[in-house]
Amino acid sequence: MLIVLPPSETKRDGGEGAPLDFAALSHPGLTRARRQLVRRVRALARTPDEMMARLKLGPKLAFEVERNRALVTAPTMAAMDRYTGVLYEALDAPSLDPAARAFAAEHVRIHSALFGLLGAGDPIPAYRLSSSTRLDGDSLKATWSAAVSKEFAAHRGELVLDLRSESYVALGPIPPTTPSYFLRVVTTGADGVQRALNHFNKHGKGALVRAIAEHGEDFADIDALHTWARASGHRLSVAPNGELLLEV
């Protein structure tokens, strides 16, 4: 199975890994696009005011420009540790035991605007780029959509849980030939109506991924996932439109 996460705008600084090595990243079919985007982002970082405007950053976040300028020289750390924010705080990858981290490295993907699909254990530097950032040349959608979809197509025999936001889904739709479920976090109000969540949407996703990693089972299909979910207290169901609902 694959679990596909969105990235986070915020990232931990530093790292103890060697500088960026494209050969160390999962999905080598994306290497050419990665190299091109890194060059484009570094070039734009040479004009700090323009990069801040493209990234919609205020003065307090000027350090993000330097991160982008230093993409190929900065230290790296595992992607699952690099990203922060609500989802990644709930996942809390640094505190996972070795077996759970190994499971995450094999089965969790993070869809980065800069690197495309990453394995959770892939070593990456800190950077700033979002799905909506406008760079010179091709759009991020044009860069990633077909290439990332092709990577998903190679996993057509696996269960795929898509926990991305809609903006990242647009940067790499999962082909119909790959059995996938878009996950939405919901709650049921006093009126009995289910409603999607915002803040707790991210927390619920992170907590679910942590629980799956700690359990360590490569679920063959949605029925196997449901069997585990019922036994472990996670309320999962498939909606009429085919989405996977997590009720919190």
Automatic annotation (TrEMBL):
<dbReference type="GO" id="GO:0005829">
    <property type="term" value="C:cytosol"/>
</dbReference>
<protein>
    <recommendedName>
        <fullName>Peroxide stress protein YaaA</fullName>
    </recommendedName>
</protein>
<dbReference type="GO" id="GO:0033194">
    <property type="term" value="P:response to hydroperoxide"/>
</dbReference>
<dbReference type="Pfam" id="PF03883">
    <property type="entry name" value="H2O2_YaaD"/>
</dbReference>
<dbReference type="InterPro" id="IPR005583">
    <property type="entry name" value="YaaA"/>
</dbReference>
